[in-house]
């Protein structure tokens, strides 16, 4: 492995436009204007909300970061592939050591995709406490030209921190519930009831960008008495699809086109509805509805809809715009997305009953410094649940959610095709839905919602790198529903050159930069975090409550 001084990425990029953001990551004690106690959040330059980042295709995003926290931090550009800049993917102890307290670090990210994305913290689930903002990348040659656009970034703000939440959830018996401290909904950084109007002019076309920065609930967007067409999902352009409503899970993004009416005689409403059936009913929180105005004329009466649509987002009926038929898999894997309990009845979230814990060496550095041992998953530590794939192989994943909890699963560095859905208790295949094998371009996205009691089959072409794969419910990720994919370690060792600035961050915290998960130049991984034996059965009292239909 060779280390480079911190230079502009490549000489080929010297003509690119640089979009520079100077961020001091700070603690901010606030209630965000909500009727709840303040907490210590994680903001930028001592403020909330964070600035929205806007750039154009081909730009280079420069994030100059100073860490004023007393713990490490890092930033991830959610949905950006980082194909040749894997080391700037921002995942703590996967692609980097984190930015040490009191130090500076710069991310240089080529923006080679257009669409709707977001930047968020990727150390200790700091986005739960506010470290997140949309990233919008414009394409001057976008095939869907519009006259104007609006952005809706929706997040839930909890009155307790992620550390406090995880402590509650890990109470013995699986009975701890953070819902005694319920969150409130923010839209573009403000309380949902203060959401701003949209102003429409007759005959114009509007793009509405929807960004789910939620930690837990789903939400829906609807607009009364207007046709709404999906044209982008998670940064991937789609064929126009007429829908009544758009439902989003944490981490997902959708753009819709809306053609304004020709008349200014009436105004209308749009609706943001927070919902789902896997969280306890809390009036005004789950569910919650926030109505905003669609204004054609300030003096026009408002049409009030009697029924607001609500329905699942049918990914199987939406095609990607660029034609690519269903990929043929080279390898298939099964992933049981479930909880597990230790003998002391401490709950964890797991993939195949393995609950993730960080290594002592970032997995990317292990892949680059262990030679042929990088091909063996054990090199990265048993607690990372690592899968090693060949570069360019097509991987099929069966994502299985057998419990009462859903999971929005996000894969870094890739989008995957959604090719099949069904129910985990289906014994006949009656409810199995599959995309056609030809003359159809399955929807591609980077975050797929796997509902409780259901499964989803996805396929993707693996690209060299070390990539995080995890649930985007931050409490699930924090409890271990997380995994590492190492793709083409042989190619990585020949092509990746780690910036010296990243290595310096490891040195500041005395983190090893060579060897396996514990820094050994052998297979021995003594000293790695213990891989606890987990039981998939609910503890007795939790099982009784579940049987009675009670959610802790």
Written overview of the protein:
8% of the residues lie in helices and 37% in strands. It is globular, with a radius of gyration of 23 Å. The model is unreliable at 1-13 (pLDDT under 50). It is mainly beta. Strands 12-11-10-14-19-16-17 form a 7-stranded mixed sheet, with no helix packed on it. Strands 22, 23, 25, 27, 28, 29 and 31 form a 7-stranded mixed sheet that branches.
What are its keywords?
single chain; mainly beta; 7-stranded mixed sheet; 6 helices; 34 strands; disordered N terminus
Number of strands: 34
Widest β-sheet, arrangement of strands: 12-11-10-14-19-16-17
Shape, please? globular
Unreliable sequence segments: 1-13
Proportion of residues in extended strands: 35-45%
Q: What is the straight-line distance between the termini?
A: 49 Å
Give a concise summary.
This protein has 552 residues and is mainly beta.
What's the structural blueprint in terms of helices and strands?
Blueprint: E1 2-4, E2 18-30, E3 39-44, E4 53-56, E5 60-67, E6 75-78, E7 104-110, E8 115-121, E9 132-138, E10 148-157, H1 162-169, E11 184-187, E12 190-191, E13 198-199, E14 205-212, E15 218-223, E16 228-233, E17 236-243, E18 246-248, E19 253-259, E20 268-275, E21 288-295, E22 331-341, E23 347-351, H2 363-369, E24 387-389, E25 394-401, E26 407-411, E27 416-423, E28 433-434, E29 444-445, E30 447-450, E31 454-461, E32 465-471, H3 474-478, E33 482-487, H4 489-495, E34 497-499, H5 500-508, H6 540-547
Parallel strand pairs: 1-34, 2-5, 4-9, 10-14, 13-21, 22-25, 24-33
Antiparallel strand pairs: 2-3, 5-7, 6-8, 8-9, 10-11, 11-12, 14-19, 15-18, 15-20, 16-17, 16-19, 20-21, 22-23, 25-31, 26-30, 26-32, 27-28, 27-29, 27-31, 32-33
